[in-house]
Specification:
The protein has about 150 residues and is mainly alpha-helical. The chain is built from seven helices and no strands.
Length: about 150
């Protein structure tokens, strides 16, 4: 059996604690997060990094946000409440998002470190930034900032 990632282990521990406490809602939510992480671990056939785990949690959080919109349009407040609960629970396993100022500072550092000058250098800058912001910033926001900084 493969070794579990730190985040996956933490969620499994929380699921066990919820089971012991009789908190069915939290246990089921944690179990669904663990299932998503396990699927990714099996599909990738390698030991997940923390960045890999954060990517999965971010994807799951995005799914919850999309489901909330659909359920709100359908008038299903019971399902909206559950999805919001799970979305909030996921936030607890993710690092705090970077502020706009912090992101701009990191983009400036990346541009200086890579020697990027034109929009053609965007790949180098993004490659430098990705591991530094893993799970703490939206990729689209990041690429928009880099593009603006490089004059694209």
């Amino acid at each position: 059996m493969r070794e579990l990632g730190a985040i996956e282990q933490r969620i499994r521990d929380d699921a066990v604690a919820a089971l012991k406490a009789g908190d069915k809602r939290r246990r089921e939510a944690c179990s669904s997060f663990v299932a998503a992480l396990k699927k990714e671990r099996i599909d990738s056939r390698r030991q997940p990094t923390e960045a890999d785990e954060l990517t999965v949690l971010k994807r799951e959080r995005k799914r919850r946000a999309e489901a909330i919109l659909v359920y709100e349009q359908a008038g299903r407040t019971d399902l909206v409440d559950q999805e919001r609960y799970e979305e909030d629970l996921l936030k607890g396993y993710m690092p705090e998002e970077l502020t706009g100022a912090e992101l701009r500072a990191l983009v400036d550092d990346a541009v200086a470190a890579t020697g990027a000058v034109t929009p053609r250098d965007m790949g180098k800058v993004m490659g430098w930034l990705k591991p530094k912001v893993a799970g703490r910033a939206d990729g689209k926001t990041l690429s928009d900032l880099v593009r603006a900084r490089l004059g694209g």
